Structure formats: C-alpha cells, structure tokens
Amino acid sequence: MMNRLTRIALVMMAAMFNYRPNLNRYLKNSDGWINFTIGLKTSSGSVEQAIVFFDGRVSVLNRIPDDADAVMNFVDDKVLMAVVRITPNEMLNLILKNKIILEGNMAYLQAFNYFISLIMGRVHQKMLDKASAKERKERKALCDTGGLSREMEDRFAYRMKARADEDIGVKYLEDPYLAEYSLDDFPLIKRLHREHFNTKPAISSERPRLMTEWFRRNGFETDNRGQPWFPELRQAHAFKYLMANKVPVIRPGSLLAGTCAPEDVAVIIYPDTTGTMIWGELGSIDKRFLNPCSITKKTTEDLHDIYPFWAKRITREWIRDKYSYPLCQKIDERAVASFNFKTVSLSHTVPDVSAFINKGTKAMIAEIQEKMGSLKEDETGKADTLKSMVLCLEGLNAYAANLSKEALRLAGVERDANRKIELMTLHETCRRVPMLPARDMDEAVNALWVFWIGLVMENNNVSLSPGRLDQILQPFFEKAMEELSTGEERKQYIEHVIELLCCYFIRNAEHQNLVPDVANYLFSGSHAETAITLGGVTREGEDAVNDMTYIFLKVTEILSMRDPNMNARFKTGVNSDTYLKRLCEVNFITVATPSMHSDDAIMETLSHNYSNKIEDVRDWAVTGCVELTLSGKHMNHGGATSINMVSGLEMALNNGWHPLMNWHLGPKTGQVENGDFATFDEFYCAYARQIQFIIENAVQFNNMAAEAYAYLRPTPLLSVALQGAIDNAVDVTRGGAKYNTSGTFNIGLADVVDSLMVIKKLVFEDKKITFKQLKDAIDSNFENDPALHAMVMNKVPRFGSGDEEAVEMANQVASLIYYSYKAHKNFRGGDYTVGFWSVAQHSAYGALSGAIPGGRKAYQPFTPGLTPHPAASNSFLDNIRDVAKMNPRFMDNNIAFNVRLVPSAEDSREKTVNTMFSYIKSYFEQGGMQMQFNMVNTAVLKDAMANPENYKNLLVRISGYNAYFIHLSTDMQIEIIKRAEFGL
Amino acid sequence: MKDSPLILEIKGNSLDDGPGIRTVVFFKGCPLDCSWCHNPESKTCQVELSYDAKQCIGCGACVDSCPQGAISKNHRFFVDRRVCQLCFTCADNCPSGAMSKAGRQIDMNDLLTQVMRDKPFYLTSGGGVTLSGGEPTLHMDFLSELLRHLHQNDVHTLLETCGHFNFNQFEQKLSPYIDTIYMDLKLFDPGEHEAHCGVGNQLILENFERLLELSRSGMFELLPRTPLVPGITDKKENLGAIAGFLKAHGVQQAKLLSYNPTWHAKVSMMGKDNPLADQAEMNAWMSTEDIQNCKDIFHHNGIEV
After folding, report:
1. Which chain B positions have a beta carbon within 8 Å of A967's beta carbon?
2. What percent of chain A has pLDDT over 90?
C-alpha cells in the first residue's frame, strides 16, 4: 500500500518535471543535464522505488538499481508518510535521529530535496511560517518580562579604573582599563555596530561562481590538454582568478579596505565541503526560524548552476567513491558516536600574520623564487608547489591593487572632506600593503585584513585565527607614541587605535559560516571562531602583557561580540593581578569573553610534545575555540574530529550494539543481562574496547578526509603563512609545515565518569543494586525505577564533588582517550592531540544518546567540555579543585571548563571582580588549565525553575542563610527572579 | 565524640558571611528561640527529622519502613511528629534525600580537612571560615579547638553570634583565636526581647559591652548587626534604641540585615506550625524605601550601616 503511494507521489513529481518547462529547466545547468538516481525504501522492504533524473527526463522504477547515487532508507512506513508533510529542514532532523538513514551521495540527495521544494515551495513556506509563529509564541511565554536588557545595560554603565604603575608591561596608557571610554565615544563604531546587528546575513555566490568559472574553463581533474592537474597549481590559479575578479568593496565609513563578499554580511559558500548542504534549503533559508539568511533569486540560480559541478568533488563524496563507502564513513554519517569536522573544514590554525605585516608579499615572492631556483630538475612537485604559492600571493596583490583603484574612485565622488582624506589614505595604503612591509598601525591592520580575505577565499572561514595580535601590533603602537609629543596627541592616537580595531572586529564578523538548519537545532549554530590570543609570556619567557593587550580588552568590552573569539593567557607569577582582574571585569561586562588559559598547565603539556622547542612553545596561541597551536608554524587542525564518549558506554552496556542507531557496530564485549561482568574492571575493559573502536574509525575517516583535501583542496596561500612549507616546498595539506598534528575534541567526560562511578559503587562495591537492575532502569529511561534514579543522583560521588576516587577515575578515563589516540598517526605523519571541550556538541551528542547510569535522562545534553555535573557539589570550589587535579599531559588540545557566577545586586563591581579573580587565580595556582565564566542572569534562573536537576549548586545569596535556589518555593523563586531583573 | 556538637551544614563558596570567599559551618542548637528565625532547623540541640517535599519522588519507601506508622501523605506535614520516635529509618531508606537528618556529628579531623580544602581560595580572596548556626558558642570546647586549629593554619576566623554566652568562658577559650565577630542586637526592650526571642537581653547587652572593650584593645574586630524583621525589629523605637545604645558606646559602624522571606518553607520541613506565615509583610521582601528609612535612623546617630 505504502509502496503504491510512494510510487504515485514520485510519478506525479516526474510528470511535473517532464511536462512543465519552468520546472524542467532546473534539470540542467551550464555543464549539461544533471543526472542522478535516488532510491527510497523502508527497512522492512515494504517500499522500494527509485526516481531517475536523466538527460532532462524523469522516470520512476520499481526497484533500486545498483548504481543509484543515493538511497533513503526509512525506518518504517510511518516515517515515510511524515516526509510528505515536512519541510526540507525537518527532513535533516529525521536523518539525525536515525529515522531516515541515508546512504550515498549527499549532494544529490540535497538536489532531490531542492526539486521537491520547487513543487512544494508554497506549501512548505506556509508550514514554515506557522512553525515559526508557534516557536516565537512559546519563547515569548518563557521570557515574558524581557528583563534582560536592563541588567546588561547596567553592566556597561560602570567601569573600574586602574593605574599604569600596576602593570609594568604598560608603557603609555595612564589607565590601562581605559575606563573613560564607552561605545558612545565612538559614533562611527556605534553606527557600524548597530548596522551589523540589524543586517540579515546573505548567502553569497561570488566565491563559488568565480572559482567554478575558472575550473569550467580550465578543467578540474585534468587541464585542457588532458593532463592531470597538480592540485596545488590548479587551486592557486583559480584563487588568483577569484582574487583578481572579485568586486573590490570599501564599506562606507570603514577604516579598512576590502570585504569577503559584496553582500554586507555574507555567508561564504565552499561547494567542495559544505556548500551543497543548503541546496535543499535554497527556497526556505530566507524564512527559517533560526538564523535565516536572505538569498536573491540570482544567487539561488547561481548556486543551482554551480552545485552539480561539485557533486562528486566534495571531500565526503571523494572518500565515498575512492574507498567504496567504508565502515568508518558509515559510522561518521550517523553522527552519533563520532563526527568528523575535517570534511567541513581544514582551516583551524594560527598563520604567520607577522610575516604578511612585516615582510610583505614582494619579499615573500622573492624568497620563494629563490627557493625555486635552488631546486633540482626532477623536483617538479616541489617546483609546482612553490609556483602555486607565488600565484596566490600575486592574487592577493591583484586584489589590493583593485582596492586601491576603488578607493581612488570613491574619493573622486566623495563630498565629505574628512572621508575624502580617509579614502585617499586607503588608496595609498592599498598601493603599499600587503606588497611591502607595513609602516604604521593602519597599514598593519589593513595588511592583516587583506591577507585574511585571501585566507577565507582559499579555505573555509572556520577557526582561522590571527593569534597574538597584541604582540604583533605593539611595536607599531610604541613607534607612533614615541613620535607624538603632547598628551593630547597621544590620547587622540589611542582613540584612533581603538576605533581602527573596532572596525577590524566588525569587519571580521561580516563573513559568516554556512549553517544548514539542522546545525541550528543541534549545535545552536556556529560562528567563524576567529581566535585572538592576548597576554602570556614572550618567546624569551618575559611578561608579554602590554598596552595593546589592554586596548584589545577595551575593544572586546565595548563591542561585546561573539567573534573574534577572545582568549587570554595568564602566566602565574609573571603576569600582573591587575591584568587578571581586568580579564574578570571584561568577562562580567560581556557575560562571556575572554576565555582564560593558564600558561603553566598548557606549556607543561606542550613542552612534553615539543621538547627542546621551548621558544615555540612560549609563543603558543589559541585556534578556534581553545585549541593549542604553536603560532605561525603549526598545521594543527585543532578541531579535526570529535567523538561521543558516552556512545562507548552505551555500546559497552549493550555488547557492541547502539540503541539509537539500532546497529551492532562495535565489538562484542559482554552482555550485562548474562552476568558477563564479574568485576568493575571487566566492565571498564569493555568500555575501553568500545572507545578504542570508535577512535580507530574516527581516525581512519579523518585520515581519508585529509587525503581528500590534499587532492581536492590544497592551500598554497596558507602554506606561505605556515613556516616550514616554503623550505620543504610542500603544501601544508601534505605535511609541509614545521609542526603537524590533528586536534580532537572528546565529549561527555563528566557524564562517563559519573556513570562509571555509579556502576563501580552501587553495583560492585556497595552491592546496593544488581547490574541488571541498573541496565533495566536505563533502558526504560529510569521510568520503571524512580527510586533508583534518585539514588543514582544523590548517593554516589561525582567528578567535581571533591571525592578523590572520582577524580582518579576522571584522570584514568582521560588517559584512556589520550593513549587510544596516540596509537595512531595522522595523514601527515603527525600525532593526534586530545581535547575535552565541546563547542555545542554536548547538546548534539546528548540529543542522540540515551539514559546513562550517572542519571542523565535520554536525549538530554551532556555537560559542556569537562565541566562537572551541577549535582556534583553544592559548592563550585569543589568543581574547581577537581578540574585543577586533571593531569594536563592527557589534555594536549586543551579543555573547556565553565564556572557559574551568581552575582548579587548588593555586590559592588569591585567585589564581583575580586571574587572572580580569586576563583581563577586559585584555580590556576592549583594547576588548572582553562576556565570560562558563565554569569547567572534571569534567563538562567528561569531555566533553574524549569529544570532544577541541573542547578543543584545555585546559591541563594543571603547572609547567614542555608538554602539553595532550587529548594525555594516556586513563588519565592519568581520573586527572586523579578528582583534580579530590576537589580534589587 | 561525646562533646561533639551537631553540625547542620558545611557550606563552601559563601560570599555573604564575611569578607572574601568563605566556608560557613552551621552548628545546631541555640539558646534563643526567635519567632522569625530563618534557619529553624538550627534551634534545638538534637537531631531532627527534615522532610523536603520538593525533593520527594513519592516512592513510599519511608511510609513502608516506618516502624511507628508515623508517615502518611494525608498528614499535613507528611510526618506525624507526635508519633515519630526519631529512629530515622525513613531517612536511611530515602533514595532522594527528601527525608533527611537535620544535624550530624562530625569528627574534628574530618571537619578540619573539609574546611581546609578551600584554603587556596581564602588566601586569594581575603576569605576564611565563618562559624554560624544556630549558636556556635553553645559548644565552647569544640569551638575553641576548631578555632585554634584554624588560627594556627593562618585561616581567618569569623564568628556569627547572638551574644548569649558565658563571657569568661568566651574570653578564655575563644577570644585568642577569633579575628572578627558579627554580633546580633535584635530587640532593645527586655520585655519584647523575651517575648519574641525566648530569653531576656541583659546578658547579651553586657556581653556586647565587654566584647567592645576587648575589640578596642585589638583582640578582634566587632560588628554589631540587626536583622530587620517587619513589624518586629524594624520599628522606629527599636532601631532608635539600638542606635542610641551604640552611639553612647562610641560605635560608628553597624550592619542591617534585610529581611529574608524565604524561610517559611523550612519551618514546614521541620513539621512545625508557623504563626508568622500568614502575615502579609512576613512574606515579602522589604521595599528599598523601608530599608532606607531604617538605615537613616542609624545615620542620624552617626553610625554607618
């Protein structure tokens, strides 16, 4: 019955595309007909149909041919029925919940989605509008008072001061905290800031259009003579073409020339990695509820024309074809046990920004050509690699030349005298940089920005990080200050620098990454994660905090933007307390940034990996979120792949079978129901084996992805910017950089440790329950045994409770992950590094994982990073002490640890900052590695009312009083929230 | 552990019980019996049974296990306290902790180990350990030993007290090891004090004067505090009298504690009736205006609050 219905639907679709010219034209693009076959079936076999798009005709088959490009496997008839009624975005959600399993080329599946949306367009739009209205209403009900903004405004209004003599690194700032300035003092910035936030991001097709144009003319796999392209050369030519032909834009009022795209706030498309993921959404992305992106008709048509060219030239598809859909890819595409990010982007690193600012492309080209001259005749690969680097630099130069012309043209028609001067200055600046060394701050930042545009034109705009800008720009600051003699001139210069950097921050936020709707729901979206790292020590080990450090902090404070992602290094005993307190204050004001890192713990772990390289170690910076990178010379790919540590647990509890995936993918390590585990150690071994299996496959897939990149998308411009690649004459995707690693992030540590403690204590040591009893409880999501759930939540020590055994268990699990990765090498011959941070993966993986012995219920998020569960202790200090006890050796790709701060209206700013300072100072002194503050505000308190199990340690701030927020009556909780909103 | 007092809670990461980050040790037992006490579980010196309905999952394990049959969901306070023999079988069997013992004995070494764990935070924040409750001075010897250990370990000590204790004992056993004392002056009129707090205030006022002398000799810091309780302590006459008393003794600094209306639920947890729960003003936070009026009374007497 279902089979007939499916067939009828497909036949109707085929007819529409066959007989309606306005639909039929979509079956074609510049390359010719878009040909592919999609199969649909149910697991039981009750349905099997296929739809074939071939040379402009659509037909329907009663069976799925062996060479179908992709197959949609529906778990049952019901799910298939539902598909007719949902939007493409919701389809992706069903896929993630493993209700629809996709096998095959994802790009063609997206094309199929797009074709469906062409027919169902209006229906889908109505459904989307209805769903959006509903969600808007629900959200309003939750946040009825809308009281957040008053709290936040108050935070900005008061600012602490400091004195120059409190920090010896400060040479010129009288008050390092720059308390006198607020956003109101910079009207240009205030306008640009407001405009930025009021601008809906737009999908931009400029980049993929220009590059595809070049590839169509000159070939991708082979050139016009039929010879295989050396990939680096091919990419470099296309890059140069793109840079020479992209529209040179100088935004009104901006002190920086150049933009990533013509659109004001642009989503950049990389069709060889993630671009095609929105193919199916092209009709609906404008109106979706979360993070809608506007898209013009022309852009839609451009992309539909471009995408088919890339359908088989996508990293993921390249692997699928070459390795015949290997097991590791199957596991990855279920997205539950692990998820690879290399297939999304391979850009996480800190390039050598200083070289572009201080050397200039002219000198770099000369250097490379000299190197080329020294090569032997047969070293053609190296010669081509170096040639591709030169081509990229020429591309940058061409773009700068175009910007210079544009500045001149704009100056010609500019009526405002001041702006005319600014534009003429930009005209001169772009004539000089990045070709020649920058002579002042404005040239330096312009050089950085043009270089950056080049980087994100070549490679995904995810986690490319400028690094230690305070160190790089300080010499320009000092030089300028020395040349100014009066206090007034110096003050004006400082204000100019603040304004310039604000422009840079806002510019940098203009390029956004592509977020398919599924990512909105799973990861709450993501952003470019351009990380800047402040403070710490110099290569020689001296205090690196300087004037620019504080200026950057001021810019961070007044803009309060999520990107660039600000990070601060702190070296205990070397950096001043004044600096640390300022970091705390900025965190308080902005609610979230900068993230703080301890040089002691981090340099300890880096020194272990890079012994005898102490200077490079001291020069470390953050990539992306928190990843550890040796600045300017380290192809670290900080966020290459992630694993779900809880999946290993679910598989160990189910003899290698995963409940949500309904798939026996792992090794058979023992059945709980059969009493196969006589001791805790036996179960722990089972966990270890499952984790090793997951890691093995994650690594294998990642290495395949790296191989795909080396062919599909080498990055010669980035190679110029990572030391080692020129000397070795090898592209960084092939291992040319001085240092080579792949960074991992591993999610669910606290949840796993707490669950293991439950098994160890309740089942094996105290023998309060049997293992089978526990298993039955989690299989029923604890619904069959609420008393057991309560016991698990209340009677077993957790990681973060101060219990020594739990901390030992955490270190043991961390070392298990560490050694499991170290057993493998990456594609470039480097090590895998181990991180315990999660971005928003703790939400995504949590949504795909069932209940676990630690008490977390099914599909709930894990704790972020390695943050202990809120139920671990009533006092954060226990959390802090335990996390500080983690061995840094096993965490060589950093961690993320969130600490909640409960401010009280009665606290002065000084008291709040001093408290934060005390937490983090003590934490670092005890060996802690990284910490970020989460300020508790009314939104959090409201969540605590709704979900008390996540807020066991939320204090009620009353003197002499012994109680916690979740224990108060509902009325009292509401009262407290109201008071917090109004600062009472 | 014969003389070992009962502890209600060791609360870490407190920012409101003295300077810096502190650990507060709440002792059980108090010589006073204030009608508004916001820690009603701290009044008696015996272990009591506490029932927190918010944590209860309704599993019935307590009902089944009670040898007296004292527990029933039909009872107003869930546990019939007249029948309950305080055997605590229910608490031992409760999986969620809703049924729990208020008050437990703790070994001095265990207590010290626990409070010393946060010493790094005390050092970086100018914090330390606060002794509160209940009334810590009911257990002079234990308190003395505890304070001595803390003092020897360079931990700042702060005592919150109602002031009703034997002064000689205090001077001998506690003074040498205390850095700061927060002492409550609640009601000035002796009759009112007895009516609302269960005992007169003569000893308290005398102790305050003698402590003031010691503080002036540099032994410790002393801060008088007055909890504002609507309709009881916040009356003009009372505050005026306290301010006058302080002024006469040359005291220039005091603290007023804003009323905390969240304590009512705790009384039910003890299975007791709460006559003040019905009064409207006892269920609300004080307005900023009212609090300012109270502060002004002290300001007029030259006292900073």
Report:
1. 52, 54-55, 265
2. 77
